[in-house]
Amino acid sequence: MLKPNTVLRRLPKALDPKQVLFLDGIRHASDIATFSYSRLKQTLTEIALQEQQNATAIQSTSAFLDAWSVVDSIDRLRGLFILFPGARKLDGESDKVSLEGVTRPIRNLRNVADHLAERSDYVLAKNGTALGSLAWCTMLPEGDDPRADVVTCAIVPGTVKSGSRPMVNPAGRSLELPTGLITLSAGEFTADLSETMRQMAEFLRDIENQIESFVDTEAGALETSGSDFTVKAYMKLGDSIERG
C-alpha cells in the first residue's frame, strides 16, 4: 500500500517523537497488511485453480491466518489514524468516503472474532463458524474451461453444517487479477478485503504526501533517521551450557 521509496522509512529527525511512534506503527501495520494480503491472494488462487474440491488443512489455515492478519492490521491503522497527534483531516476523506465508513466493517469483524467465547450464542444464531468464512473470485486462465471465465469460491472452516453460505457475485464489479473480491464474513458482518485495501492505500498516500510536504518546506535540510536495523551479538558458550 505504501510507495516503494516511502518517506515513512526515512522520517525527519525534527518530527515529534510521539508522531514518529505513530508513523512507525502506521508503516508496520501497512507492511503487514500488504504482505498478508499478497500471500492470501496467492493461496486463494491456488485453491481456486487446483483440481481437488476442498482446500487442504495447510491452505485453509494459511488463508484464514492471512485474512485475519489483514483485518487486525487495518483496524490498527484505523486507531493510529484517528488518534494521530496533530493531524489534520485526511484528504482522502469526503462525504462519500470516510475512514469510519471504510473501516467500520473491519471493526465489526474484529469485535466478533475477539469475543468469540462471549458471543458464541450469537455466532451460532447466525449459522457462523469459529473462524468465519472466506469467499472470493478467481479469473480462469484463457482456454482453461470453455464453460466459464471466472470461478467463485468459498471456504467454510470447521464441522460441516447445513445451510447457505455467502458467495461472491462478480457481475458488474471490478475484479483484481488473478484473484479479487476477497470477502471475509463473521456472524452477520462482512468485509470486502480487496476493496478495503484499495481504499486504505489512498489514506496512506495522503499521510505520505503530508510528510513529504513537510520535508519540502524545509528545503531538504532536514536530517533523516534510519529504520529497521538489526542487532547481532556473537557469544561463546561455556562448558556448563549444553547445546540443545
Q: Would you summarize the structure shown here?
A:
By secondary structure, this protein is of the alpha+beta class. It is 44% helix and 10% strand. α1 runs antiparallel to α2 (57-83), α2 (57-83) crosses α3 (99-114) and α2 packs across α5.
Description of the molecule:
The structure is a single chain. With 244 residues, the protein is α+β, with helices and mostly antiparallel strands. It has a domain at 11-132 and 186-217. The protein has five helices and four strands. The protein has helices at residues 17-49, 57-83, 99-114, 120-125, 193-217, and strands at 133-139, 150-155, 179-186, 189-192. The protein has a four-stranded antiparallel β-sheet with strand order 2-1-3-4. Helix 2 crosses helix 3 (99-114). The chain is globular and about 60 Å long. The model has no long low-confidence stretch (mean pLDDT 85).
User: In what order do the strands lie side by side in the largest sheet?
Assistant: 2-1-3-4
The assigned structural class equals: alpha+beta
Helix percent reads 40-55%
Number of helices: 5
Low-pLDDT stretches:
none
Give the overall form. Answer: globular
Mean residue pLDDT: 85
Classify the beta-strand content into a percent band.
5-15%
Instruction: Give a quick account of the main beta sheet: strands, pairing sense, barrel closure.
Output: 4 strands, antiparallel
Count the beta strands.
Answer: 4
- Output the helix-strand order: HHHHEEEEH
The value of Rg in angstroms is: 22 Å
Query: How far apart, in Å, are the first and last alpha carbons?
Result: 41 Å
